[in-house]
Amino acid sequence: MQAVAEVGEVPRWMSRYQEQRERRQKRRQLERVRHAYGFDITQTFQRLDAKQLPVITLPISLLPGEEAHYITDAMLCGQERPFASTKRYVPSDQGRLVLTSERLLYLGRKSQIVLAYAQLLHVSRLYDAIAFTAEHWPRPEVFAVRYPLECAMYLERILEQWQRRQEEQGESASSAFKHTMSSLEQDLARLPDAETLATIVRPQVEKRAKASFKDRKEL
Q1: Considering only CA atoms, which of 87, 73, 76 is closest in space to residue 150?
Q2: Contacts of 35 (CB under 8 A, 6+ apart)
Q3: Which pLDDT tens digit goes with each residue over 162-174?
Q4: How does DSSP assign 156-181, residue by residue?
Q5: SS3 124
C-alpha cells in the first residue's frame, strides 16, 4: 500500500527531485566557473583556507625547514610584443615556476632564478602572466603561466604565512613588503562580477578580506 504524505509534509518524490535539481545547478555553476577561469577556483579557495598549505615534492634540495607549495609550467619572457597577438610577451626561456615557503624559484632550461620574499617589492597579475619586481633587479621579471590568477592566489596565501613567521620571530615586515601585499590583495579583489561568483566565490572572498582587515587593524 502506497504511503500517503501527511498535511504539511513534503512528498518523498518531491524531496528527491529537489535534491537532484540542486545538484545539477551546482554542477552547472562549477562548470561556468571552470570555463571562466580555466581551473576550479572554488577548490583552490578550499585548499588555501585549510590550516596548512599543500606540500609538493621537488627533485631538488631545499633549505632546512623550507617547503614547496605550488609549481607550474612557466616561460620567462623578455620584452612585450610591439603588436597585438595571442601571445603578449616574447619568451626567452621555458621551465617551471615554484613557490616555496621562503622564496620563488624559476628552474629553466637556460637559466635559474631565485628570489627570497624579503627582497620582493611588487607583484603584478597580467592577462596571461605574472610579473615580479625585486629590489636588486633592474626591471621586473615576467613569467607567462597557464593560470595567473591561481598563481597569485597561492602567492598571497604563502606571503601571509611568511609575514606571520617573521613577526613571530620579532622581525617587523618592511614597508615595501606591506606595499606588495596590499597591491596583491587589491589585484585579487578585482575579480569579474559573474553570477557564479556571487553565489559561490564572493562569500569566501569577503570572508578572507574581513579577516585580513581585522588582522591589519589589530597590528
Answers
A1: 73
A2: none
A3: 998 888 877 555 5
A4: HHHHHHHHHHHHHTT-PPPHHHHHHH
A5: strand
- pTM exceeds 0.90 for this model: no
Residues 42-66: pLDDT tens digits?
A: 777 788 887 788 899 998 899 999 9
DSSP one-letter string for 7-33 = TTPPPHHHHHHHHHHHHHHHHHHHHHH
Residue 84 burial (C-beta neighbours within 10 Å; 0-12, 13-18, 19+)? exposed
Question: Which ranges of the chain have pLDDT less than 70?
Answer: 1-10, 13, 17, 20-21, 23-39, 79-87, 171-219
CATH class of the structural domain 53-190+197-218: mainly beta
User: d(Cα 125, Cα 144) in Å, to the nearest integer?
Assistant: 10
Q: pLDDT at position 90, please?
A: 81
Beta-bridged to residue 10, according to DSSP, are none
DSSP assignment of 74-100: EEEEEEEPSS--SS-EEEEEEEEEEEE
Q: Is the dihedral of CA 77, 83, 87, 88 positive or negative?
A: positive
